[in-house]
Amino acid sequence: MSKLSEIFIDISDMEKMAGRSSLVHRLDPRCKLLVTLLFTITVVSFNRYDLMALIPCFTYPLFLLIAAEIPFTYLMKKLVLASIFALMLGIVNPFFDRETMLYLGSVPISGGWVSFISIMLRFALTASAALLLLTTTGMYNISRGLEKLGVPQVFVMQLFFLSRYLFLLTDEASRLVRARAARSFGQRGLGLNSLSHLLSTLFMRSFDRAENIYIAMRCRGFNGRMRSVTKFRWGGAETIFTVSWIVFFIFFRFNGLSYVISLYHQLNIY
Fold it and tell me: pTM for the complete prediction?
């Protein structure tokens, strides 16, 4: 099986997981979108050298992981694959910021290494929250939630169609790769000429299929708006979920961890 086929199946599995019926799955997509957005803003707002302040932020993705019954190894595999981009972004920091900030025993740690670890932690937090949002909500409900929250219709439809027809594009690319492999021997047919021919063929087939899909949608009354027979309902569970996490994020964003540590020391004294 080609790598493209594996990606196609993996994306399909994420959409299937969104159809489960856990506590988090049943929540209104709008509350999950709002909380995840605020969580991301909170994580990126910390100082780049402040590692301890990021520790309480792991509570939110861990809660989603446990409440939604998502396998931990499933999430870690995706984070490891995507962490390459964060690694490339932060690996240069130790070469530019060499001033010692702290000591690990007798080993000096420069500010560059601290900021590098901070980048990796921020990536792990924000990427895991986004993946869990997608896995517990699904792209269709996310798009509908964005529309209900007032996001411009054009942006919502572009995002939805990008995710929806990525399946078709990946499937078409997999067919082209299999056809090339069936007509090649060994390493033959793997040059730039073959690659350019594959890309041009994929573009033409994608364009033709997009035209056919658009005509079919217009024939079925599509007018640029997302419609569904199911209605969103914001109830007490959504209010408790949203308010609780907002209070949690605000508390730890404004030195809540320092307050907890000082209170713990005072209790130990008495």
Answer: 0.75
